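User: Please run a holo structure prediction.
Assistant: Happy to. Please share the sequence and the ligand.
User: Here you go; the ligand is zinc ion.
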Amino acid sequence: MRYGIIADIHGNLEAFEAVLAKLKGKADQILCAGDMVGYGPNPNECVEIIRGENIPSVAGNHDKALVNEFPLGLFNEAAAEAIRWTQKVITQENLELIKNLPLKLEYPGFDIVHGSLLEPLSEYLTSMAVAVPTFNLMNKPRLFVGHTHKPLRLKYQDKEIINPGSVGQPRDGDPAAAYLLYDDEKQEVQLFRVEYDIEAVQKKMKGAGLPQRLISRLVAGR
Ligand code: ZN
């Protein structure tokens, strides 16, 4: 089985479509590590693709904040403002899908969570030092996570934690959308980037009145 693993789409339709075009014919199944909304101008369109393409997903902190199950007080002001905007535009049907997202997806040989196994919604696995408790909780060889918006691959004993990076708001200095392919027969993980029309997204964000800080950071990739 060839899996396309994505995370942190954040309502960025152009980035999501660019990634889907790359995964077409290469992935048998696409899976999402959470945060389909927040920040970006097209939350409804992104959730509708998740539904239409049958992409199983875990809940991220922004998804939970949208349905009032994660405190907005833990977000910076720009992020909170984007969630409040998303709450105004999201459809009831899409809200239902988000309400029903699980915290963990389990597959043969790997699991998926947004943050970590200790704190699925809030912990950032940024380095080996913070990842050790999650490695100790792993009972499968691989765990895919999102949340940090930075691609990362950590190995510990015979286990591996992998973050594909973010589709809709990369923060590693490269503004291109990130994703990965995992072939469980070959036991092969490959990380990829694809450029997309950032200007088009920025125009829509401006039109929606989303915070300038969120608009600017897409180009910087930070
Ligand atoms: Zn995120």
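The domain at 2-220 is CATH 3.60.21.10 (Purple Acid Phosphatase; chain A, domain 2).
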